[in-house]
Design a protein that fits this description.
The protein has a single domain, classed as NAD(P)-binding Rossmann-like Domain (Rossmann fold), CATH 3.40.50.720. It has eight helices and seven strands, in the order E-H-E-H-E-H-E-H-E-H-E-H-H-H-E. It has a seven-stranded parallel beta sheet with strand order 3-2-1-4-5-6-7, with helices on both faces. Strand 5, helix 5 and strand 6 form a beta-alpha-beta unit.
Length: about 260
């Protein structure tokens, strides 16, 4: 049964992996045997995350290639680096995203909306274009897009972000149909409220945290590792029959 989650010999690229959910995913993929490329915008943060993972595992499991997801050239450099270093990429985790606007859709500027769409969906499309074909050619690969439960909901304040996260789910479905015959799987993970720096304002204040979690079945905030476990499942032989799906991990918030 141990081989179900064995990622030995696999190579993973994880965007936004210097902290939070992305770092947890990179750490757990490496822990299960994968070589991992750590990538985010800041080189120092990437280096620190890779050093932490390597120290914990006692081997050089993580290497660094900083990239800004808003730049197609940066992402091409990331893809080229991974392929030159390892000769292949088996696992692509598109985790990095942004949300520069909080308010009604009627107030969002074109620049803000374009940034959300560029960083949260177009960047994922680019990386899939860059790394998907070599997976298809080899008949092996797993792409994981980190979406959000916001993609299932309307919102008066993060509507544009939710639009982008709904688009991620459709991108996964489309690519699952295209690449499935070659044995390449594409899925989304849709987290609820997770204890990350991005959500710090929601969990540092006990009253706000209680209001944000009291409607969920588990009555608590999630942890980055609880998202990482699903990523390991989807990347490994254990998830070999899953494709085109959006897996909700929200403590029961969307069903209660």
């Amino acid at each position: 049964m141990g081989t179900l989650f064995d990622l030995s010999g696999e190579v993973a690229v994880v965007t936004g992996s210097s902290r939070g959910i992305g770092k947890a995913i990179a750490h757990r993929l490496a822990e299960h045997g994968a070589a991992v490329v750590i990538s985010s915008r800041k080189p120092e943060a990437c280096a620190a995350a890779a050093a932490e993972i390597n120290a914990a595992l006692g081997r050089e499991a993580a290497v660094v290639c900083p990239a800004n997801i808003s730049s197609k050239d940066d992402l091409q450099r990331l893809a080229d680096f991974a392929l030159a270093r390892f000769g292949k990429v088996d696992i692509l985790v598109c985790n990095a995203a942004s949300n520069p606007y909080f308010g009604p859709m009627s107030g969002i500027t074109d620049a803000q909306f374009e940034k959300i769409l560029r960083n949260n969906i177009l960047s994922n499309h680019w990386l899939c274009q860059m790394l998907g074909p070599q997976m298809v050619a080899r008949g092996h690969g797993s792409v994981i897009l980190i979406s959000s439960i916001g993609g299932f909901r309307g919102s008066p304040v993060i509507g544009a972000y939710n639009v982008s996260k709904a688009a991620d789910m459709q991108l996964a479905r489309n690519l699952a149909v295209e690449w499935g015959p070659a044995g390449v799987r594409v899925n989304c993970i849709c987290p609820g409220l997770i204890k990350t720096d991005m959500a710090r304002a929601l969990w540092e204040n006990p009253e706000i945290l209680k209001a944000a979690t009291e409607g969920a079945c588990l009555r608590r905030i999630g942890l980055p590792d609880e998202i990482a476990g699903m990523a390991v499942f989807l990347a490994s032989p254990a998830g070999a029959f899953a494709t085109g799906q959006s897996f909700i991990l929200d403590g029961g918030a969307t069903i209660s």
